Structure formats: structure tokens, C-alpha cells
Fold this protein.
Amino acid sequence: MITVFGGQTSRSLRVVWLLEEMGLTYRVRQVDMLADTPDAAFLAVNPAYYIPAIQDGDVTMVESIAIMEYLMARYGPTPLAPSPHDPAFPAYQQFLHLGEAGLATLMMVPVVSRFLAPEAERDNWGARQALFWAEKRLKLVRRQLEQSTWIAGESFTAADISMTYALEFGRRQAVITLGDAETAYLDRTMGREAYGRALANSMPAD
Ligand SMILES: N[C@@H](CCC(=O)N[C@@H](CS)C(=O)NCC(=O)O)C(=O)O
């Protein structure tokens, strides 16, 4: 059984969504990153203490994109990962990583600055610059969505899972403004049944 350590609005949703799309069995182990006391059991899994992480037998992994790549390689083949010979592969590979390295990671900086930085440091050069870089990278997403239904072409792939988290995070935290094409795209990706199940299964129990 695959265990996903995470929470509903975190990047663990990428992993849970992928597991749902692939029809694999898993369980979600909630980690409350905002709790006053660190979760000792989770600290043993990930001493760097961030989510998501997975345990799959003897395998322990962190990094949402790497985890998705592991799961698709280990339990595939799956249409979520086009083969290297598929014409969609370069765009797939690019946007799979751009969703985290080029967008979500950069957007985290202004978001956490706004919520966690001391009052006088909330509006800082680093946060503004990170947002500027993310907005520049969004131009690649916009150009692609003018040409194709999904981010890597005409089939839904794990790159859409990666990208959806980034765009939805930026929109939810109001650090980016989405145009009509990106909004319609999120309606398509988040309208998938597997997304709905992933969201429901990622909810903490009361
Ligand atoms: N690049 C990592 C980023 C992970 C990350 O930033 N996770 C957030 C929650 S979505 C977190 O746990 N942050 C707390 C921390 O890094 O201390 C990934 O894609 O998994």
C-alpha cells in the first residue's frame, strides 16, 4: 500500500490525483504543517519536514514531480507519461517541470512573504522579483494553451497535474491573474472525476 503524507491544499494533491488517474491503491496520512509541535512520525520520514512524501514498501521519496515520475515508471506504462518517441514528449517533459520549478516554487516566495514575514518585510524585493519571474514563465503556458487542449497536446498527462496545482495555487493566493484560456483550462482539468476523488480523499477527517 502506498502512503502519501500530505494535506488537502498541498502539493500532495498532485500525487493523490495521479494515483486516482492510475487507479492505484493508496492511503493519505495527514500532516498538519501549521501545528505548533512537529509531527514526530513524519519527521522520521522526511527530516527536511515538508510535504508531500510517500512510502511505498522500502521506498521513501519527497518532491511531488519526482514522486509522480517514480509512480508512473514503477506502475506504468500509463498514457499520463507519453513515451520519449511521442511528439508530445518534449512539451510534456517541459511543462511537467515548469509547473513546479518555474511556477509553484517561485510563487511560494511572495505568498509566504505575505503571510509569514514580519510586517516591514512583507513587500520585499525578493518576493517581487520571484513573482516577476513566475509571470514571465506564465507566457509559455498561455502560448501553449492557445494551441492545445491540454498542456502537452491533445491528451491529458501528468504535466496537466503539475500545471493545474501551480495555476490553482497562484489563483487561490491571488498572486497571479488568469486569462480566459487558463481559466477554461483549469475548469477542464479540475472537472475530471479523478481530481474530485483526490480532493475528497485528501480531506482531513473531523
Ligand atoms: N518542490 C517541492 C515543494 C514542497 C513544498 O514546498 N511543500 C510545502 C507544502 S505544499 C511545504 O511543506 N512547505 C513547508 C516547508 O518547506 O518547510 C515539491 O514539489 O514537493
